[in-house]
Design a protein that fits this description.
elongated; alpha+beta; six-stranded antiparallel sheet; 18% strand
Length: 703
């Protein structure tokens, strides 16, 4: 219905979470139009506001709240249905039929009302669903029994079938609702990490205010044992912060002045003050919740197949039910058996298990991922991550720490000593955001070298930086990049070039007035878990590729340390996307793991783009299908093992749902399944599929 609205580019509805995600042109359509489209389809809708701290998922179960609790009315109708069942078993007489009619009618009205309402909405909008099947089956049994009672046929009443089927199906839905609420508990817990109040420092002293009133640049006080209310930067004090529930990092992080803190994390030891930098929807926690909402509202590719099957399933079941009725009645003269068979077919065939298998597993999987530093942005990518064959790893900032270490400064021009080479490089790099540039500036500070003023600064992506210092043009960058910029003297510096690569795993050259004057070498500081992450990826059967702009020798040295299968060296940012496409063309299902602006095209092109957070540029996180919140490399392995475990749960749930229907629909049509047993089996099917998804919590262990 949403897709029929003009201006709508895409729409995905997930009934498990009660949400739809719509991409549309607001110049053509508006929210009111979209809501009206949903109502035309037989549902109600309203725009979802920003994630709230205690937001809950709605329940689909008729008459049940989000927790699936039974009400007093539910218990009364269950007792009435039990009484009807006992009477039908032990008292066969016209008087018994009338008593059963009196007892069963309130059950038919009270318990059946939600099914009738749902069936009417569906039929009014030209479709049939599980409510249609339940309403049709129980109504046939009830009305047939009423007619038999009026005609004095006390042995041909089936009030017990109608009443017990309704109660069993309703009870099954409540169990299902409770299980779904449990499936959503991980993301619900994430929503509750942000404290409701914050202590801010104002001119008149400390003031406790609601967290949604904290503004950017407010100074916030956090005491031991309190949660950080919003994102910010520490300005006074030191402490250890437990970020495990937000980023998945197992060990507390020490923070002090200048260090960033994340809203929702737990302060452990000391008190500190920080300046708020992001509040409300802009905080990392709010963005995480929103990304998980989007993922849970999206659909995996396999779910789209199930949707197409379900679209023809209900009409097909109705045909089978009619065929069972007419077959037994016309061919065998056993209309009562035919009636039982038709009702059993209608009840047992409810396709709720099919509809629940995929979204419930996705719900559990995305919630688990969010609690362990893995944000899955859409269900389809989650599914593809379970099928990966290759992992392409960017080096700088992904496998290495963003704080590089200068190990050597060498001059190759008598006019410039090593201090002068360092001064020129630090002057240019003071405006650079590249990790190597920051390392040069930090190292210069430790050596007492003060950067000079710079004019005409320019950063050239993948090449280096340029600018004017004291009227002289300065270029700092890799050898290949400097050659492209027309710097002279490279061809005659092979010995120095070799020395630079041997002395340091990475080196940049410094040119003044278009002439090479020296080089600066860096130590490759890989992240603590880089080698272990590569090893685990290989154990999972993935071919691991290292992709870097470094020289061949430097790249191979890094590859040897990490133990990767293949290395791509001297890859320019514009070529990263091409390299990924080449792997895909050869039949690989490729994950691109990277951070930074220059990785964004490759992240978007890969089958699964995995953006390393914790300092990653926003565009990288937007391009990635999966975001590793804290830049934690063990989370990379977790994202793949979780995807595979979730995919197994989906396949198992669908196998059970399809097998259930394949086996029981023919049994019901052949008269081998009583309608009450059919109702119990149908409810058990739905609950078992949800429990199968919930088992993911035990089956998957984060590493």
């Amino acid at each position: 219905s949403l897709l029929t609205v003009g201006g709508v580019a895409s729409a995905s509805a997930n009934l498990t979470t009660g949400q739809a995600t719509v991409t549309y042109d607001d110049r053509v359509a508006d929210l009111d139009t979209l809501v009206e489209a949903v109502r035309r389809a037989g549902f109600d809708a309203q725009p979802r506001e920003a994630p709230a701290s205690h937001e809950r998922y709605p329940s689909e179960a008729p008459g049940a709240d989000a927790s699936g609790r039974l009400s007093a009315g539910d218990l009364i109708t269950a007792l009435l249905a039990a009484a009807v069942l006992i009477l039908s078993m032990f008292w066969a007489s016209p008087a018994s039929a009338w008593v059963q009619l009196v007892l069963a009618t309130p059950v038919q009205v009270a318990v059946g009302r939600p099914f009738y309402r749902g069936a009417w909405k569906a039929l009014r909008h030209g479709r049939a669903d599980m409510d249609t099947l339940v309403a049709l089956g129980t109504t046939v049994a009830y009305l047939y029994s009423v007619a038999a009672t009026l005609h004095g046929s006390s042995h041909e009443v089936y009030f017990d079938t109608a009443a017990v089927v309704l109660v069993l199906v309703g009870f099954g839905r409540r169990l299902e609702s409770r299980a779904r609420a449990s499936a959503a508990s991980a993301i619900t817990g994430l929503m509750q990490l942000q404290p409701p109040q914050a202590t801010v420092i104002r001119s008149r002293g400390e003031e406790t205010i609601p967290v949604d009133r904290v503004a950017v640049d407010d100074v916030v006080l956090v005491r031991p044992g309190q949660r950080v209310p919003v994102d910010g930067v520490v300005i006074e004090g030191e402490s250890a912060i437990d970020r495990s529930l937000v980023t998945g990092e197992s060990l507390p992080i020490e923070v002090g002045p200048g260090e960033a803190v994340i809203g929702g994390t737990l302060n452990q030891t000391g008190a500190f003050r920080f300046r708020a930098t992001r509040t409300g929807r802009a905080t990392l926690l709010a963005q995480m919740i929103e990304l998980v909402h989007r993922a849970q509202a999206s659909k995996a590719d396999i779910q789209r197949v199930v949707d197409r099957v379900s679209a023809v399933f209900v009409p097909a079941v109705a045909v089978v039910a009619v065929a069972a009725l007419l077959g037994w009645g016309l061919l065998a003269g056993r209309w009562v058996t035919g009636l039982h068979g038709a009702v059993a077919v209608l009840v047992v065939a409810c396709p709720c298990a099919l509809g629940l298998a995929t979204p419930t597993a996705i719900l559990v999987g995305t919630g688990l991922g969010a609690r362990h530093g893995v944000l899955i942005k859409d269900a389809a990518a989650f599914e593809r991550a379970g099928l990966l064959t290759h992992a392409v790893l960017d080096k700088t900032g992904t496998l290495t720490e963003n704080r590089a270490c200068v190990t050597a400064v060498k001059s190759i021009d008598p006019a410039f000593d090593e201090r002068a080479v360092l001064e020129r490089a630090a002057s240019i790099e003071q405006y650079s955001e590249h990790p190597l540039g920051r390392a040069i500036v930090d190292y210069a500070a430790t050596q007492g070298v003060k950067p000079s003023a710079v004019a005409q600064f320019k950063a050239i992506t993948g090449a280096g930086v340029t600018g004017m210092v004291a009227g002289q043009p300065i270029v700092v960058g890799r050898a290949l990049a400097l050659r492209q910029l027309g710097v002279r003297g490279l061809d005659g510096q092979k010995a120095h070039w070799t020395q630079a690569e041997d002395a340091a795993k990475t080196a940049v050259w410094v040119a003044v007035d278009g002439q090479i004057v020296g080089w600066i070498g860096f130590d490759e500081r890989f992240k603590p878990h880089a080698q272990d992450a590569v090893r685990r990826l290989k154990e999972l059967g993935l071919r691991v590729v290292l992709m870097t702009g470094d020289t061949r020798r430097a790249a191979e040295a890094a590859a040897e340390r990490l133990g990767v299968d293949e290395v791509w060296a001297e890859v320019q940012p514009a070529d990263k996307q091409l390299k990924v496409r080449q792997l895909q063309a050869s039949g690989g299902v490729v994950a691109m793991v990277g951070d930074g602006v220059n990785d964004a095209p490759a992240l978007a092109t890969a089958d699964v783009g995995i953006a390393v957070g914790g300092g990653a540029a926003d565009i990288a996180s937007e391009a990635g299908h999966i975001v590793l919140v804290g830049g934690d490399l063990p989370a990379l392995v977790r994202s793949i093992t979780l995807s595979r475990a979730t995919l197994r749960r989906i396949h198992l749930g669908l196998f059970w749902a399809f097998s259930y229907n394949v086996l029981l629909i023919p049994a019901a049509a052949l008269g081998l399944l009583h309608p009450m047993l059919a109702a119990a089996a149908m409810s058990l099917s739905s609950v078992s599929v949800v429990l199968n998804a919930l088992w993911l919590r035990r089956a998957w262990k984060p590493e």
